[in-house]
Amino acid sequence: MRPPFSSSAQHAHGPAFDPRQALVRHSAMLSGTLGMALDSGNRVDLLPDGPAGHRAMSDAISAARDHINLEGDLAAEQGPGHELARCLLHKRRQGVKVNLLTCDSGLPERLAEALRSAGVQIRRSTGPLRRLLVVDGKVAFTGSMHLPGPRRAGAAGRHWLARPTPWRDTPVRVEGPAVARLQQLFMAHWVEQTGQQPYLSHFFPRLAAAGGMRAAVAVDELDGAHMFYRALLGALELAQDRVCITSARFMPPRRLLQGLAQAARRGVAVKLLLPGISEGWATRQAGRSHYASLLKTGVRIFERQRTLLHAGTAVIDGLWAGVGSGHLDRHGLLHSADARLIVLDAGLGAELEGMFSDHLRHSREITLACWRQRGVGERLLQALARPLALWL
């Protein structure tokens, strides 16, 4: 079996891969695609899983002095979502302003009433929710950071079939100028969904440099401004050495399939980490219907075993790192209102690749030879599921 990571620089037909030149090219492409310069002076900490993210968010909320802005689903009666809600309640009683944008169907009424009685401003969103937390305008969290109940609580979660199954998220903690971008995003979405202003507070304090990372916030809107998708396609076009993509759902748009295949044909080492466990047969089989065409181009596909994968990340050339709350599939890229953080930094890229490599040790590689031997029943399921991908 081939090793999970093998640099394409050894077999690509072009010149040897130069990370410094690659960084310049990726920076120019990203700035041009997003129509803005990248923010310098950021620190982005990768949190390895959901429980680590919940602990970090609770710590940040506990340290709040001025305000807390949270957009997300706190639906559970127990578990991390409920615990975070109790932290919000405690801070509001200390005088910290709290603005909570949550889903229309989720927050238990008993908990909602306790929060309202304490003065938390709760608004229900009728549209898609982003996963976003901003504390005092100085620290923010985004990425895959669901707040489930005990049935889906990180390493102790359960699969929808009620058998014990780990649940893997990938949130990030952000400090520096990029926090102001995420704060602006929260406020704009609040006004859009509610038609009102959140509790007024000191939302935009002066932000000093917190690190050496350059970052951008790519916002996808339902009106067709698919900024992260465009940025991802641009990065794939420039890729010279390696591409590592993790996605909990894999029903990719046609142009993304083409971008992955073209990169592999150029000699780029393209690896996809996809779920071996899924919450729906149609979702999984629709994604698997694309395996053959990708495998023929040299793309390597791995399915994570014994864990319900819920992360959406991309690392290109070891320095273009994208982390977000949405899936890297057709719905997540073209029909959602997600926000994703893109960071140009070799250090963060190495961390994400290290996490990717760790997942591969618990994954099964799907080879073209094995894939061609799959049974007739599975082929029929994939043929049936693929047309459903437009509605899943």
How would you sum up this structure, described in words?
The protein is of the alpha/beta class. It is built from 13 helices and 17 strands. A 15-stranded mixed β-sheet has the order 4-3-2-5-6-8-1-9-16-15-14-10-11-12-17, sandwiched between helices. The chain has a two-stranded parallel sheet with strand order 7-13. β2, α3 and β3 form a beta-alpha-beta unit. α3 runs parallel beside α4 and α6 runs parallel beside α7. The longest helix has 17 residues.
What's the total count of β strands?
17
Order of helices and strands: HEHEHEHEEEEEHEHEHEHHEEEEHEHEHH
| Percent of residues in beta strands | 15-25%
User: Can you list the strand order of the major beta sheet?
Assistant: 4-3-2-5-6-8-1-9-16-15-14-10-11-12-17
Rounded to an integer in angstroms, the radius of gyration calculated over CA atoms is: 21 Å
Chain-averaged pLDDT: 84
How far is the first residue's CA from the last residue's CA?
34 Å
* Low-confidence segments: 9-13, 148-165
Q: Given the structure, what is the number of helices?
A: 13
Largest sheet: 15 strands, mixed
> Into which percent range does the helicity of residues fall?
25-40%
Helix/strand-derived category reads alpha/beta
Overall geometry comes to: globular
Gist?
The protein has 392 residues and is of the alpha/beta class. It contains 13 helices and 17 strands. About 6% of the residues have low confidence.
List keywords for this structure.
392 residues, 15-stranded mixed beta sheet, single chain, alpha/beta, 13 helices, two-stranded parallel ribbon
